[in-house]
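Hi team, as promised in this morning's meeting, here are the two structures we talked about. I've kept the exact order from the run log so nobody has to guess. The first one is mostly here for context; it's the second one we should focus on when we meet again. Sequence first, then the predicted structure tokens.
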Amino acid sequence: MTDPTHTDDSGYWFSAGERERDAGNFRQAQLCFERAAVLSPYNAVYWSELGLVMYENDESGADALRCIRHALELDPRCAAIWCAKGVILFRQGDPEAAVVAFQRATNLNPREADYWMNLGLAYAALEEYHPACQAFEIGIEIVPTDVSFWERKGTVLLALGEKERAEHCFANARRFA
């Protein structure tokens, strides 16, 4: 039930959208994010989250990307929005465009490990294993005990034929698991 005292509070609607999204209720989250964006049309994060849940709701990828592009027009220096764009592009099967978006995100915020993971995955999907390995190595520098980074780096090293280095990575993954 909606609290009538919050009907014009964009922050309330955004928080409600986050709760619904985190609970897996993407349709409800979309309605909340739409309301937040209508109430605060210049808030780039609201538009970005709306685009992400639209994509989760199997809305047209074009509509989701339109929201992300609008968010980037409002705040082109927000790394999280560039990452959101990359996620949608990657899921749409365009890893080349995703790499560009993830590179932008890592340039804007090089200390966010998730951006490096996404960049590495996009490079790996393109079978560009050397830059994928570099992205995973930077992620390991940021979070040295992250099992996923060690596993992904090991997988990429196997693809490069570097079995001994790969085994070292898999051993670290097991150690940190």
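And here is the second protein, the one for discussion:
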Amino acid sequence: MKRRIPLVLTLAPMLLAATPSLAQDAARAAADAAEQPVTQSLNNNVAAAAATTNAVNAAREDQYELDRAAFRAEVAARRAKIMSDEAAYAKQQNAYADAMAAWRIQNDECKRGILKSCKKPTPVPADFYQP
């Protein structure tokens, strides 16, 4: 027959190791009390560094928003200039087309024998330009 060892005796060393003694608790409390000012000082340093970083980031964010607003204003000004240039170019094209139409009429009249049209100067697009 096998001999059985009671469960309590088997687990006893583990239970004793798992529960700290009063002396260990006192030692831990003393160590914690000694480390607390150092820990608090380190935490304060980290909090100050984080506050500085947050302030720097806020300033950078503000500058970034100002830069974006300036960029958007420049884009809008450029777009307005492009639209103005395109409108002027369209007017120039219309003036040239009108001058060419007048020249064709003048040329056709000259070919039909109307001498007055032959003696006229060639139409100039600037005369047809309407600002």
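Starting points for discussion:
The chain has a mean pLDDT of 87.
Residues 33-128 form one domain.
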